[in-house]
């Protein structure tokens, strides 16, 4: 009897703790869902006094819509750079026997984790200045892409290792070049890995504030993560209606992309063919 009571109390305590934790993380999401439709939103999550004026106000702000396009440009450029470069590098490291290859991968991954973009911001800023990439979106793409590449190569190499080499040897017998083998044989097999890296890269760039804030000087080139910090009233108070509405639109592209790729590929962390 005592064991049954103890087991019941433990189960009850576990579910209570999970419920409290779920409620804690759900409150910001509830606020994000309700505040854009509230006539007078506050920092508390509550049932809204329904209105669409916040969306009309946002659509009438040219800087907000332009910043979303800038974010899409930076995310697409960085994602493309990371996926293409990491795929070629991971394929080469997977197929070519180099002395210290595994040690090189782990050192790159370790350095990318320790020396983050924030810690290396001063030399990165000086390098961008020397290359005349200050206030250029290309400079932001190169800096962000360089920071994401080591982890992307490390992840994609596992997918490349799981690809059967017999497929490549058959294509080579029929006269396919190395680039044709990568494009027509390897890429279709590691497509889930490429999709995972693509979504991860876009999400990292989409929410990045510091590097675009430091490297981009022109307001018309600023992404959404930077422009969001300018939504204040004339009295210096945050415009909660505009911030909430913009945050909702700002989060939708990444969420929709994540759901699409997850439903299609499942975010597997292994190669396209399993033995």
UniProtKB/TrEMBL annotation:
Signal peptide: none annotated. It is found in: Cell membrane. GO terms for biological process: transmembrane transport. Pfam families: BPD_transp_1. Residues 68-261 form the ABC transmembrane type-1 domain. The chain crosses the membrane at residues 12-34, 72-93, 105-125, 137-156, 193-215, 240-261. It comes from the Bacteria. InterPro entries: BP-dep_ABC_trans_perm, MetI-like, MetI-like_sf. It is a multi-pass membrane protein. Its main location: membrane. Keywords: Cell membrane, Membrane, Transmembrane, Transmembrane helix, Transport. GO terms for cellular component: plasma membrane. CDD domains: TM_PBP2 (cd06261). PANTHER family: INNER MEMBRANE ABC TRANSPORTER PERMEASE PROTEIN YCJP, MALTOSE TRANSPORT SYSTEM PERMEASE-RELATED. Belongs to the binding-protein-dependent transport system permease family. This is ABC-type maltose transport systems permease component-like protein. It comes from Streptomyces xiamenensis.
